[in-house]
Design brief:
Rossmann fold; DUF1731; alpha/beta; 9 helices; disordered N terminus; about 40% helix; three-stranded parallel sheet
Length: about 210
């Protein structure tokens, strides 16, 4: 990242402004809800430990003044090869032991790792992009729909739910909230900036990940 002397931005075209891009978690920033829909302008970041942590991350990454173009990408659950969320899910699903977590009704904001990298690259290269971008896919899914789609991609059943009490016992109350409660997050501003998703649909994303 380069720097500018104070007051010099107006003499330079936007494409030459320095930039800073950072990434946080959309699933932690926005308050869990079965009905609300959140975009980049929705309030959040102040209701529990993880949401406050995201707020502190974003504040720490923010530079003072307006001489630097700054972008924050709030990502959903990242789907990719060789680890991450899918790495923990594949074995039980391959064995036919997978299923929804808790009620399964909670939303599951997700994104393919190629699109997360693409949004970060887009934010760096497109001089008109600034502020918050939701790094989630444009097609939303509940946890139950995610389980069904993953099982279909693997050709396995997915009818064994993981009870909430077990999740809380394994992960602890604070971390279990991340799995048992979700929110419907939309990438309204991300789409408005012109980013084109490689994997906008969950089925295609999961098939590519497990291939």
């Amino acid at each position: 990242m380069s720097s500018l002397l104070p007051g010099c931005r107006a003499a330079m075209p936007p494409s030459t402004w320095p930039e800073r891009t950072s990434s946080t978690l959309s699933e932690a920033y926005y308050q869990p809800s079965l009905t609300a829909e959140y975009d980049e302008d929705s309030p959040g970041g102040d209701f529990d430990f993880f949401s406050n942590l995201v707020t502190k991350w974003e504040a720490a990454a923010r530079l003072p003044g307006d001489s630097t173009r700054q972008v924050v990408v709030r990502s959903g659950v990242v789907l990719g090869h060789g680890g991450g969320a899918i790495g923990h899910m594949l074995l039980p699903f391959r064995l036919g032991l997978g299923g929804p977590i808790g009620s399964g009704q909670q939303f599951f904001p997700w994104i393919h790792i190629r699109d997360l990298a693409g949004i970060l690259t887009h934010a760096l290269e497109a001089s008109h992009v600034h502020g918050v971008l939701n790094g989630v896919a444009p097609s939303s899914a509940t946890n139950a729909e995610f389980a069904q789609t993953l099982s279909a991609a693997l050709g396995r059943p997915a009818f064994i739910p993981l009870p909430s009490t077990v999740v809380q016992g394994v992960f602890g109350r604070e971390r279990a909230i991340m799995l048992l409660e979700g929110q419907k997050v939309t990438p309204r501003r991300t789409l408005a900036t012109g980013y084109q998703y490689s994997f906008p649909e969950l089925g295609a994303a999961l098939k590519e990940v497990i291939a």
